[in-house]
Amino acid sequence: MKRSSLKTKLYAGFILLVIVAVTVFFIQQIRQKSRMETNLDKYMPKNHPAFVYSDQAEEWFNIKDGILIAIENPDGIYNSVTLEKIKDISRKLQKMPEFDDNDVTSLYTVDNIEGTEYGLEVNAFYSRAPKDAEALDELRQNVRENDMIYGRVVSRDETTALIVAGMESEYFTDDFYREILAFAGSYEDENNTIYVAGRPIVEGTMGKLGPKDMQRMVPIVLVVITGVLLLLLRSFRATFATLLTVFVSTIWVFGLMAVLGIPIYSVSTMIPVMLIAIGVAYGIYFYNHLKQYAGRHPRAEESTALAYTIKILWKPLAMAAFTTMIGFISLLTSEVYPIKYFGIFTAFGIFSAFLMALILLPVMVILMGYHSGKKKEKAGSEYNLFIRFTDGLLARKKTIYIAVLVIATISLFGIQRVWINSSFLDKFEKDSDIVKTDTFVNSKFGGTSTLNVVLESPDADTFKKPESLRLIDRLQAETVKLDRVGNSFSLADYLKRMNKVMNEDREEFYAIPETRNMVAQYLLLYEMSGDPENLLKVTNYDYSKANVTFQLKGDDSKTINEALAVIKSFEDDFRELGIEMNFAGSGYKALVFTDLILEGQIKSIVMSLFLVLGLLILMFRSIKAGLIGVTPILITLLINFGFMGILNIALSTTTALLSSIAMGVGIDYAIHFLQHYRMNLASNPSKETALYATMNQTGKAILYNAVVVISGFLVLLFSVFPPNRTLGALVSMNMFTSLTGTLTIMMILVYTCNLFITKRKEK
Amino acid sequence: MKKTHAALFLSLLLTIFMIQPLSAEITGKQIMEDVYNKPTGDDMQGELTMTLTNKQGESRVRTLKQYIKYGDEVDKKIMFFQAPADVRGTSFMNWSYADGRDDDQWIYLPALKRTKRISSDGKSDYFMGSDFTYDDLGDRHPDEDTHTLLREETLEGKTCWVVESIPKEEDYMYSKTITWVMKDNYLGLRREFYDEDGDLLKILTIKKFDQIDGFWTILETEMKNVQKDHKTNMAFNNVQINRGIPDRRFTERSMTLGR
Fold first, then answer.
1. How many CB pairs under 8 A join A and B?
2. Which residue of A171, A334, A388, A634 has the fewest CB atoms within a 10 Å radius of its CB?
3. What are residue A104's phi and psi, to 5 degrees?
4. Which domain holds residue A365?
C-alpha cells in the first residue's frame, strides 16, 4: 500500500495529539481524585425501606458488627495469665477511639447477675485476675451457673474465651485492620493462641484481597491477550494499536469518574473486562477489513483503504456500540448506585472504544503504516476452511437444532437451581486463615454472624407483658434448634435469669415471670443494680421495641434464609399481640442487597432484550432479523445461568453482572454478522456465496475476538481469590457461547429463513 | 487640675488595695467548703419526678416519694415509687456511711413480696439509669479535690464564682469539674463534668431553687450527658424540711408499707 501524504500525516498527528492530551488529562485526574470505595455499606441503597429500617434499628439497639478475638488455652482459660490477658485486651479495646466502653463484651466486662443470701447482685466476674486455685474455681463455677454467659464469652469446654468488640464498619480501615491484628497477636504465647474473626475482618480482608489479586493477575491477562492477538493479527503495530484503544477508553472511563467525583466500587473493576472484550473485537474487525481490502487492492493508497474500511465498518460498529450501550444504560433501573454507575460508565467506555476504533486506529495506520504481511494463498486456504465449516453446519441443520434444544433444556433445568449467595466468607478459600479462624470460633461459640430480629409495637410497655416475652422465648427456643443457629439473646434471657436468682436459684424459676408487675419490678431492680445501658441492647426506653439477636454459624444466604423461615413462622403470633416483626444487621442487609442486585439485573436483562430486539428490527427493517439476531444472546444467557446452576456457582454481585457481558458481546456478534451478510448479499450472486464471504470475514473476526478474550480470561483460573476465578471461567464461557451461537445456530437460521432476501432478488 | 489628678490616682490606688486583699481572701477551696457546709436541715421529704430522655427523644418518667434524714455517721434515704403503675409500691432504701464504707441498699418488690439487698460496684454507678452517679447525688467532701477560683462571672443574672476542682485521686471518673457557685446562697448554679480524657461529659444545671423552711433548696435540676445526648430531669414538689422524720421510717418493715 502507498503511504499517506505528509499533509494527511500531519492531520493524523494532530488528532493523535488531541487524544493523548485528553488521556493525559484523565490520567492526572485519576491520580489526584480517584478513590476506591471498599465500605460495603456505601453500596447499599440508603432509602430502601429495609435499609432505612435496619439502620434505624442499629442505632436504637447499638447493633454493630463485631470483631471477635478468641483466646485459646488448651489447659483451660481459668488461670491468672489467660484471665489477665482477657482483661488487658478488653480494657485496651475500650480505650481505642473506635470503640465505646459498651461495645466491648468479654468475661471481664459482662455483668454477672447473681443470687446471694442478700438478694440480687450484679457484679463483674472479676476485676483483678484471681490467682489462687480456690478463687479460680469459684469463677469457673459462677460462669458455669450463668446461662446468660456460659457458652457465649467462654466456650463450654472452657478452653477458649471470646472478646467481642462492636464497631461501625465505616471506621474499618486497612491501617486499623493491621493494628488490630498486631494488637491481638501481641497477646499470644506458648500456651495462649489468639484468633481474630468477625464480619469487619472478613470485609476488610476481602476489600484488600480482591483488588490485590486483580493487580497481580491483570498484567498476566494482558500479556496473554497481547500474545494471542499478535499471533492472530501477525502485526506488532496492529496489536499495539488495538490494545491502545482498549487502554485509552479504559483511562477515559476512570478519568471521567474521577472528574465527576464518583468513587471506584468493586463492581467498577468489571468495566475494563467489558472494554477488553469489546475493544479487542473492534480492533480485529478493523484490521480484518483493512487487510482484506489491501489484499484485493495491493496498489491502493492507504487513505483509500482506510476510507473504505471506515465506510463499511462504521455502520455495524455504530449499531453494535449503540445497542450495547442501551443494554448497559438499562442498568440505571437498578436501585443500587454502584450498579447504576457501572451501567453508565461502561456505556461511556463502549462509546469511547467505538470512537477510538474509528479515529485512533486509522490515525495509527497513517502514522505507523500497515503491513498486511500475509501471502494470498494462505488466505485462500483459510477461505476454503470456512466454506467447508459452513457447508458442514448447513448439512447438519437438524443435529444443530436438536443440540441447541438439548442444551437449552439442560440450561433451563440448571437455572432453577441457581441460588443467590450474599456470603462474604464463601469468597475465601476453604483453607485460608480467615475461614479456618471462623470455623474455629464457630465450633466453640454460638456463631460469628448475627441476625437481629426487631419487634415493635405502637404501645408502650408491650415488652413488659409476660405474653410478649413468652413468645420471644419460644421464638428463640425454636430457632436455636436449627443446626446453623448457635444461640440467641433477648430481654427474655435477662428476665429468666433474674427470676431464677431471685428465687434461690431454683431451676423451675428459669422462666418468664408470671405478671407484668413482676417483670417491671425486676427491670427496675436491674436498672438499680447493674449497668442499665446493657438493657438498651435488647429493648428501648418505653418497652415498645425489642431486639432479639441470633448467632449464626455462617453468613451465607442459605443459613440466614433457614433461620428467617423459622423466625417468620412466628410473625402471625406476634401480630396477634400487636407486634410487628422486622430485621436488622449487616448479614440481613447483605441478603436484601444481593436480592436487589439480582432483581435489578433480571429486570435489566429482560428490558434490554426487548430493547435490542426492537433496535435490531428497526435497523434491519425486518422482524425476522430481530428475532434471529437475539438468538445467540438468548442462548448465551441461558447457558450462563444454566451452568451456574449446574456447577453450583452462586449468584452474587459480580456473577450477576457477568450476564451483561453476554449481552454486550452477543449483540456485537449478531449485528456484525447480519450487517455484513446483508452487504454481501448485494455484491454476491447467491446467498451461499454471500454466506461464505460473511463467514470468512465476520466469522473470522468473531472467532479471533473470542479466542483472544477467552485465552486472556482463562488466566484468571489460576487466581488465588475464588471470585476472580469464577469471573475468568464465566467470561470465557460467555465468549465461547456467543461465538458458537452466532456462527452455528444463527448462521443456519439466517440461511434457512432466507433473511434479507426479497422476492425480487430471488428471481 | 493637679488636684483632680491626684484624687484620681489616690482613688485608683485605693481600689487596687481594696481588691487585692479581697481576692486573696476568697479561694476556690474556701468557696467549696462554704458550699459543703451550708445548712441543709436535719431531714427532708418531698415528691420527686425523675424524667430520663434519650437521644431518640423517648422518655421514662417516674414519680417517687422520698424521705431523707441526715446524721453524723449515716445519711438515710427511703424512696417509694408512685408511678408508673406497674412498679407502684416498690421501695428503695439507701444508707450512706460517713466512714467511707460501701452504701447499704435494699429494695422491696411488691410483686415478689420480699425485701432484697442489692449491691452496686461503687459510687461511679449511675443512679437508676439516670445521668447522675451516686457520687453526683451525694456531697463530695472538698478535701478530695484541689480547687482553683478561675473567675467571677454573671450567669443567668446571678453573680457567680467559677471554681475548677481537680480530684486528688488519679483514677476518679472525672478529670475535673467546673462549678458556678452563686454568691448569695452558695448553691451551685451549673457544673460541668469532664471525662478521663479531659472532654466535656456532662452539664448539670439548676432550673429552679427557692428557700424552703428557711433553707436554700434546689427544686429542679437537669443533668445532661453531652456525649450520649441523654438527659435526666429531677423535679421536687411539696418539699418539707426539718419536720422531724422518725428513725422507724428507715427500716425494712417500713419499706413494705409502700408509702
1. 89
2. A388
3. -100, 125
4. 1-33+234-374
